Amino acid sequence: MMYQWTKVTGHAPFAPRDGAGALVFKDKMWLLGGWNPNDKVHFPRICNSEVWSSIDGLDWHLEVPQAPWEGRHYAGYVVHDGRMWIVGGDPNQGHYQNDVWNSDDGIIWRQVTDHLPWGPRVFHHTLAFNGRIWVMGGQALPQFASTDENLYGDVWCSTDGAAWEKVLDNAPWGPRGLIGNSAVLKGRMWILGGGTYDTPAHPQRTFHNDVWSSSDGRNWQQYANTALWAPRQMHEVAVFDGRLWIMEGYNLDGNRNDVWYSDDGVSWTELPNSPWLPRHAASVFVYHDVLWLVAGNNMTPDVWRLNRL
Fold it and tell me: Can you give the CATH number for the domain in which 161 is found?
């Protein structure tokens, strides 16, 4: 199988950012919020709540300069029940964003709850599957927002974003998060790598390259203990062309720009020679049968598309 990257633009109209939400909704790509602490004009509070959309990856329209949800990055972002959803957030404002918002047009945003039952956490993995929103893992970061230190390996789900059910206390993949985007394939939810951020009590970050999946959130099967790709966190996952994809990310060697795909989660093939700069926390879309990679910790507002030849 042959694939090819094409640079759409190196200068999209939005300011550079990482961790921006990336959703495909109503035949548009939507870019939500993001983080850039060095840009005090566009990110006066480290993260912003801008809402951008595009139908071609080249022209981007600022739909909402400042949404009612507090600026954030690397939160939970899903499309569910005919709406875009933002689930939880980050600790950059000195507190945990324990809220859920949704919108059916990208312009008007409604708060569903401001009191999530699963407690203070960030870097949780979030996806939509089988008529529910799922939240898995994550952690508390006491050095950013005061709370007890916690590393989570639990699984929660909700149909409405307000009432949540704990499905599992301790998943076999153990405490982790820092997995961007989501992968649902062959009627199963997939966990690809991930890890934990450093905290005072756990000063060493963790990085994984294992592969797990589940059809119900309770029973998990391991498909690879050490996949061919290097352990990483703050990477992006996707399902494109009927395959699992994992790309970029961060480990102790720094930012990465490698790309891998698999039909089954066991055997992995590298797509070599990525033409874009290493990064983590990019925004990835699967839109119009194309895989799109947008911005990230390279701190350049670039847009790339991957086509099947």
Answer: 2.120.10.80
**Residue 169 DSSP SS3:** coil
The SS3 of residue 10 is: coil
The residue written with tokens 């709540």 in the block is 49
Residue 108 belongs to some domain of the structure: no
How many structural domains compose the chain? 1
Per-residue pLDDT of the chain (309 residues; tens, 9 = 90+): 799 999 999 999 999 999 999 999 999 999 999 999 999 999 999 999 999 999 999 999 999 999 999 999 999 999 999 999 999 999 999 999 999 999 999 999 999 999 999 989 999 999 999 999 999 999 999 999 999 999 999 999 999 999 999 999 999 999 999 999 999 999 999 999 999 999 999 999 999 999 999 999 999 999 999 999 999 999 999 999 999 999 999 999 999 999 999 999 999 999 999 999 999 999 999 999 999 999 999 999 999 999 999
Residue 290 lies in a domain: yes
130/102 Cα distance (integer angstroms) = 18
Q: Is 283 in contact with 294 (CB distance < 8 Å)?
A: yes
Q: What is the pTM of this model?
A: 0.98
Is residue 83 included in any domain, yes or no? yes
Q: What single string gives the DSSP state of each residue in 263-288?
A: SSSSS-EEE----SPPBSS-EEEEET
With H, G, I as helix, E, B as strand and everything else as coil, classify residue 70.
coil
Structural domain including 239 reads: 3-19+76-99+116-308
* Look-up of token digits 């407690």: 119
Q: How far is CA 282 from each of CA 47, 103, 171, rounded to the nearest angstrom?
A: 15, 23, 27
Q: With respect to residue 133, please indicate whether it lies within any of the assigned structural domains.
A: yes
| Secondary structure (DSSP) of 111-162 | EEES--TT-S-BS-EEEEETTEEEEEEEE--TTTS-S---EEEEEEEESSSS
